């Protein structure tokens, strides 16, 4: 799944994923080199954020694997994988791919839970899939419940201390908060890693979730540790932990005064001119 | 579906199912593919596998002939066994068959090598 240009509606608004990714859409998707390149890059980054012990190959879960592009990245890095998707046409393409030999695929809707026994996986990645869970496609679907059930079952099938990394394109802060709150409720801790926050086109958001225990946080990359990285340029990467998007402005602060002044000016009311002195602390009077 | 997948799949996601493992396997059509043997791979995956579930799955498709009853302690040095385990976990592909939930007896069909674990809500 890829980011639609702004004039197009997002695919998840058009209906359930199993209907959107039909045979034509699936084969279009698999043969588009632009999508392939982006998916690869994002899967590489997601795998990096999993922070698996070096040199050890593990069993990873690929949630919403589609035609197996991200699974290929897992395999190329020496891991086994199990891919899961709700679209059969996509899975059929993945299954027929002779190169994807060190893994397997399962047909399941992520909102109905992860069909694996406890502690199965060393980690999970998901590329552009989780936003599909935020929409109700029938009256008996509750996005909040589906997300919670999904995270809960995912938590169960991950080994202790392992992580799940989700790349997704949030529509707005509310959607971000919805996903985060359900993940936290299910027992995960973690936060968002935002790559290239300044660039509209390159901006990528990864939700890094960790299962209990003391885990090392993914490091925000800077120029000092940038050596030896050839594929991804890390300029301007920032790290947001437990971001509270709509932090309330403290009443009486300078920001509050400015906001109020601007709002009243907008309403056409007469306001004081902008001054650097507004909201300053006064010395105690004798 | 590979036996690797079978070893990790469980029907715990169904309502009121606590165990849901292992799923009973029956196969109509099996293919064997050549997958490159990677010793490290197998050594890493075996401790995660449930050996008795693997053995019963192999028995149900008549592939358990070279598999011991229990995993011997020195399995890590036994190259022949590692190769056999690799063959069982990665090379055997169940194309047509069924998985059955041990608790609710629900059937999950396997078609074109992909197990279908989707359930409709009313049956959930």
TrEMBL record, chain A:
<keyword id="KW-0963">Cytoplasm</keyword>
<comment type="similarity">
    <text>Belongs to the class I-like SAM-binding methyltransferase superfamily. BUD23/WBSCR22 family.</text>
</comment>
<feature type="compositionally biased region" description="Basic and acidic residues">
    <location>
        <begin position="261"/>
        <end position="277"/>
    </location>
</feature>
<feature type="region of interest" description="Disordered">
    <location>
        <begin position="261"/>
        <end position="286"/>
    </location>
</feature>
<dbReference type="GO" id="GO:0070476">
    <property type="term" value="P:rRNA (guanine-N7)-methylation"/>
</dbReference>
<feature type="domain" description="Methyltransferase type 11">
    <location>
        <begin position="61"/>
        <end position="136"/>
    </location>
</feature>
<dbReference type="Pfam" id="PF08241">
    <property type="entry name" value="Methyltransf_11"/>
</dbReference>
<dbReference type="Pfam" id="PF12589">
    <property type="entry name" value="WBS_methylT"/>
</dbReference>
<dbReference type="InterPro" id="IPR013216">
    <property type="entry name" value="Methyltransf_11"/>
</dbReference>
<dbReference type="InterPro" id="IPR029063">
    <property type="entry name" value="SAM-dependent_MTases_sf"/>
</dbReference>
<dbReference type="GO" id="GO:0005730">
    <property type="term" value="C:nucleolus"/>
</dbReference>
<dbReference type="InterPro" id="IPR039769">
    <property type="entry name" value="Bud23-like"/>
</dbReference>
<dbReference type="InterPro" id="IPR022238">
    <property type="entry name" value="Bud23_C"/>
</dbReference>
<protein>
    <recommendedName>
        <fullName>Methyltransferase type 11 domain-containing protein</fullName>
    </recommendedName>
</protein>
<keyword id="KW-0949">S-adenosyl-L-methionine</keyword>
<feature type="domain" description="18S rRNA (guanine(1575)-N(7))-methyltransferase Bud23 C-terminal">
    <location>
        <begin position="209"/>
        <end position="284"/>
    </location>
</feature>
<keyword id="KW-0539">Nucleus</keyword>
<dbReference type="GO" id="GO:0005737">
    <property type="term" value="C:cytoplasm"/>
</dbReference>
<dbReference type="GO" id="GO:0016435">
    <property type="term" value="F:rRNA (guanine) methyltransferase activity"/>
</dbReference>
<keyword id="KW-0808">Transferase</keyword>
<keyword id="KW-0489">Methyltransferase</keyword>
UniProtKB/TrEMBL annotation, chain B:
<dbReference type="InterPro" id="IPR005651">
    <property type="entry name" value="Trm112-like"/>
</dbReference>
<dbReference type="GO" id="GO:0030488">
    <property type="term" value="P:tRNA methylation"/>
</dbReference>
<protein>
    <recommendedName>
        <fullName>Multifunctional methyltransferase subunit TRM112-like protein</fullName>
    </recommendedName>
</protein>
<dbReference type="Pfam" id="PF03966">
    <property type="entry name" value="Trm112p"/>
</dbReference>
<dbReference type="GO" id="GO:0070476">
    <property type="term" value="P:rRNA (guanine-N7)-methylation"/>
</dbReference>
<dbReference type="InterPro" id="IPR039127">
    <property type="entry name" value="Trm112"/>
</dbReference>
<comment type="similarity">
    <text>Belongs to the TRM112 family.</text>
</comment>
<dbReference type="GO" id="GO:0046982">
    <property type="term" value="F:protein heterodimerization activity"/>
</dbReference>
């Amino acid at each position: 799944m890829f980011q639609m240009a702004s004039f197009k509606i997002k695919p998840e608004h058009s209906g359930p994923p199993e209907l959107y990714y039909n045979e034509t859409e699936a084969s279009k998707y698999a043969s588009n080199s632009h999508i392939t390149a982006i998916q690869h890059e994002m899967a590489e980054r997601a795998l990096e954020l999993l922070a698996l012990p070096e040199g050890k190959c593990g069993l990873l879960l690929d949630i919403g694997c589609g035609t197996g592009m991200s699974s290929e990245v897992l395999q190329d890095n020496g891991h086994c994988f199990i891919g899961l998707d709700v679209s059969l046409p996509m899975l059929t393409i993945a299954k027929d791919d002779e190169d994807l030999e060190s893994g397997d695929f399962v047909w399941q809707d992520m909102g109905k839970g992860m069909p694996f026994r406890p502690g199965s996986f060393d980690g999970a990645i998901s590329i552009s899939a989780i936003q599909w869970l935020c929409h109700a496609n029938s009256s008996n679907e509750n996005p909040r419940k589906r997300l919670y059930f999904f995270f809960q079952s995912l938590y169960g099938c991950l080994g202790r201390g392992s992580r799940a990394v989700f790349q997704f394109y949030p529509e707005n802060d509310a959607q971000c908060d919805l996903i985060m709150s359900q993940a936290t409720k299910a027992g995960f801790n973690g936060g968002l890693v935002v790559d290239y926050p300044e660039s509209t086109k390159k901006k990528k958001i990864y939700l890094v979730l960790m299962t209990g225990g003391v885990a090392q946080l993914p490091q925000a990359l800077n120029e000092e540790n940038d050596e030896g990285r050839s594929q991804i340029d890390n300029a301007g990467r920032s790290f947001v932990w437990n971001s509270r998007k709509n932090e309330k402005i403290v009443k009486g602060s300078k920001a509050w005064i400015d906001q109020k002044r601007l709002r009243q000016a907008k309403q056409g009311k007469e306001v004081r001119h902008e001054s650097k002195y507004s909201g300053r602390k006064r010395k105690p009077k004798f | 579906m590979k036996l690797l997948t079978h070893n990790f799949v469980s029907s715990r996601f169904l309502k009121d199912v606590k165990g849901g493992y292992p799923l009973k396997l029956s196969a109509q059509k099996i293919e064997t593919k050549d997958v490159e043997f990677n010793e490290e791979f197998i050594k890493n995956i075996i401790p995660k596998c449930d050996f008795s579930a693997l053995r019963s799955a192999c028995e149900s498709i008549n592939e358990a002939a070279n598999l011991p009853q229990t995993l011997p302690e020195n399995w890590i040095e036994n190259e022949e066994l590692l190769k056999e385990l690799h063959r069982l976990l990665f090379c055997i592909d169940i194309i047509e068959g069924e998985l059955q939930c041990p608790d609710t007896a629900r059937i999950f069909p396997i078609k074109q090598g992909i197990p279908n674990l989707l359930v409709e809500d009313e049956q959930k």
